[in-house]
């Protein structure tokens, strides 16, 4: 559903501001991932806390990025990408790939797959995906992608993001 197809609110319906909406999701913890791809023959990537599982059969995930992201044209053009699920000791990687105006691959440990996409080392796991669809939604681009390869079962603990801060998960309840 594109932004043009969003049904308008009825007259007088209560509205939630962008700041109120952001505050709700800042409090909601999310796993931290880095999405990498080839763009113009070079490695490119960004941090994402919006990765979700969509379907197990076939295996499809989704993520979003801001419509104003400098990598939006590359994501719109690519056929494949890699989603890396970061380990709890990779806060520096998450911060580097979230930074603007820097070469995110300088000092990053990575190697290209035979298919060309850059793969970061030290993550809990990664999945290679073929892009299925790109949908403009509000002020974001929603991307769905079919998982076609994985580095295997996750190893180690996941990095989590909540209230603009990186966290480790604590002990399981009950």
TrEMBL record:
Pfam families: Flavin_Reduct. It comes from the Bacteria. This is Flavin reductase family protein. Keywords: Oxidoreductase. Its EC number is 1.5.1.-. Residues 25-168 form the Flavin reductase like domain. One of its GO terms (molecular function) is oxidoreductase activity. Gene3D superfamilies: Electron Transport, Fmn-binding Protein, Chain A (2.30.110.10).
């Amino acid at each position: 559903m594109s932004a043009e197809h969003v049904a308008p609110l009825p007259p007088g319906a209560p509205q939630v501001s962008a700041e109120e909406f952001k505050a709700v999701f800042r409090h909601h913890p999310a796993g931290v991932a880095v999405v990498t791809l080839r763009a113009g023959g070079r490695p490119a990537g960004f941090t994402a806390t919006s990765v979700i599982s969509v379907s197990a059969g076939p295996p499809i995930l989704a993520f979003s990025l801001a419509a104003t992201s400098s990598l939006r044209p590359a994501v719109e053009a690519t056929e494949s990408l890699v989603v890396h699920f970061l380990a709890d000791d990779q806060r520096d990687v998450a911060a580097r790939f979230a930074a603007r105006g820097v070469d995110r691959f300088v000092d990053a440990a990575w190697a290209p797959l035979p298919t060309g996409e850059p793969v970061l080392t030290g993550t809990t796991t990664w999945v290679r995906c073929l892009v299925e669809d790109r949908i403009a939604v509000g002020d974001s681009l929603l991307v769905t992608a079919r998982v076609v390869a994985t580095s295997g079962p996750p190893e180690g603990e996941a990095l989590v993001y909540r209230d603009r801060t990186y966290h480790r998960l604590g002990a399981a309840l009950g």
